[in-house]
Amino acid sequence: MASTRVFASRLASTMAASSKVARPAARLQFAPKRTFTTQRQAVPMTPFQTVKRQSPSGLLQANARQVFAAQQARRQYSSEIADAMVQVSQNLGMGSAAIGLGGAGIGIGLVFGALLLSVSRNPALRGQLFSYAILGFAFVEAIGLFDLMVAMMCKYV
């Protein structure tokens, strides 16, 4: 049983190699009959001559352009998997932005925690420290709003 498998695979590889060698000569004999242009060559083709590439006609090129444009206009994505991947990436962007909003909340808490600690240590600087705390609050809130804007862009744009 194993010997027939080996013999069959060797026979198949030998036949494939011999048919690949014989194919170019057979193609060159029938090449003038299948061209797109009407020009005939005076010299008969031989297997050792180089074959000049024929350019397709204008009608064929226009048809190919129309088919390509119709395929592009029909659907933006090629499959439902691509649509699902877009949805997943939008949701990941929203999750990342939510983490950033959590960071802004932590920052606001740290700013006012530092304000309370510093006022308890030196009550005389209460007014000046409160203005610094409001400035820190504004910066942290701006970062949080920027994060929210990025989240909405990820989801809806």
From TrEMBL:
<keyword id="KW-0812">Transmembrane</keyword>
<comment type="subunit">
    <text>F-type ATPases have 2 components, CF(1) - the catalytic core - and CF(0) - the membrane proton channel. CF(1) has five subunits: alpha(3), beta(3), gamma(1), delta(1), epsilon(1). CF(0) has three main subunits: a, b and c.</text>
</comment>
<feature type="transmembrane region" description="Helical">
    <location>
        <begin position="97"/>
        <end position="117"/>
    </location>
</feature>
<comment type="similarity">
    <text>Belongs to the ATPase C chain family.</text>
</comment>
<keyword id="KW-0813">Transport</keyword>
<keyword id="KW-0406">Ion transport</keyword>
<keyword id="KW-0809">Transit peptide</keyword>
<dbReference type="GO" id="GO:0045259">
    <property type="term" value="C:proton-transporting ATP synthase complex"/>
</dbReference>
<dbReference type="InterPro" id="IPR020537">
    <property type="entry name" value="ATP_synth_F0_csu_DDCD_BS"/>
</dbReference>
<dbReference type="GO" id="GO:0031966">
    <property type="term" value="C:mitochondrial membrane"/>
</dbReference>
<dbReference type="InterPro" id="IPR038662">
    <property type="entry name" value="ATP_synth_F0_csu_sf"/>
</dbReference>
<dbReference type="Pfam" id="PF00137">
    <property type="entry name" value="ATP-synt_C"/>
</dbReference>
<dbReference type="InterPro" id="IPR035921">
    <property type="entry name" value="F/V-ATP_Csub_sf"/>
</dbReference>
<keyword id="KW-0446">Lipid-binding</keyword>
<dbReference type="GO" id="GO:0015078">
    <property type="term" value="F:proton transmembrane transporter activity"/>
</dbReference>
<dbReference type="InterPro" id="IPR000454">
    <property type="entry name" value="ATP_synth_F0_csu"/>
</dbReference>
<keyword id="KW-0375">Hydrogen ion transport</keyword>
<dbReference type="GO" id="GO:0015986">
    <property type="term" value="P:proton motive force-driven ATP synthesis"/>
</dbReference>
<keyword id="KW-0138">CF(0)</keyword>
<keyword id="KW-0472">Membrane</keyword>
<comment type="function">
    <text>Mitochondrial membrane ATP synthase (F(1)F(0) ATP synthase or Complex V) produces ATP from ADP in the presence of a proton gradient across the membrane which is generated by electron transport complexes of the respiratory chain. F-type ATPases consist of two structural domains, F(1) - containing the extramembraneous catalytic core and F(0) - containing the membrane proton channel, linked together by a central stalk and a peripheral stalk. During catalysis, ATP synthesis in the catalytic domain of F(1) is coupled via a rotary mechanism of the central stalk subunits to proton translocation.</text>
</comment>
<keyword id="KW-1133">Transmembrane helix</keyword>
<protein>
    <recommendedName>
        <fullName>ATP synthase subunit 9, mitochondrial</fullName>
    </recommendedName>
</protein>
<dbReference type="InterPro" id="IPR002379">
    <property type="entry name" value="ATPase_proteolipid_c-like_dom"/>
</dbReference>
<dbReference type="GO" id="GO:0033177">
    <property type="term" value="C:proton-transporting two-sector ATPase complex, proton-transporting domain"/>
</dbReference>
<feature type="transmembrane region" description="Helical">
    <location>
        <begin position="129"/>
        <end position="151"/>
    </location>
</feature>
<dbReference type="GO" id="GO:0008289">
    <property type="term" value="F:lipid binding"/>
</dbReference>
<keyword id="KW-0496">Mitochondrion</keyword>
<feature type="domain" description="V-ATPase proteolipid subunit C-like">
    <location>
        <begin position="92"/>
        <end position="153"/>
    </location>
</feature>
